[in-house]
Write a sequence for this structure.
């Protein structure tokens, strides 16, 4: 294996960039906006009173999407490791980019539930700035996950 911990290194870069982008206050807000579709779906499926029902279902939907994403990348990386001797930087960047739009909204909804008890007001979207640094750390974990799957399947 030519590039040991390559995905982890890309994960560190994504973490650093995300942490720096959290200083802009604008990027974190736009990063969680795609999850409004999930929230709209959740609000149509459960009783909106109390609104925490919508937040809990949104978390459930996002966790389900995350688990499906992990399953798919597990299969893809496993197959790629058996066919190639090295990882593609483009593939890892693509995986991390998709992960970006799953993990930041999920981090926002967890933050909303844990720290704000799903209370909603006009300033709620600004909580994305507070949750962004926490969810940014997950890119390193994803990088390690990719590297470990790759190494384990390269040996077999």
């Amino acid at each position: 294996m030519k590039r040991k911990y390559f995905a982890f290194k890309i994960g560190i870069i994504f973490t650093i960039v995300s942490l720096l982008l959290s200083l802009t206050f604008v990027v974190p807000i736009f990063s969680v906006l795609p999850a409004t579709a999930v929230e709209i779906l959740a609000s149509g499926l459960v009783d909106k009173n109390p609104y925490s029902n919508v937040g809990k279902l949104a978390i459930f939907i996002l966790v389900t999407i995350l688990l499906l994403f992990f399953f798919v990348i597990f299969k893809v990386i496993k197959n790629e490791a058996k066919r190639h001797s090295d990882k593609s930087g483009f593939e890892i960047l693509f995986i991390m980019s998709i992960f970006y739009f799953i993990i930041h909204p999920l981090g926002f909804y967890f933050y909303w539930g844990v720290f704000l008890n799903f209370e909603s007001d006009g300033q709620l979207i600004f909580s994305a700035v507070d949750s962004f640094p926490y969810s940014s750390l997950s890119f390193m974990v994803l990088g390690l996950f990719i590297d470990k799957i790759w190494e384990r399947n390269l040996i077999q």
Summary: The mean pLDDT is 91. The chain has one domain: 6-24+39-155.
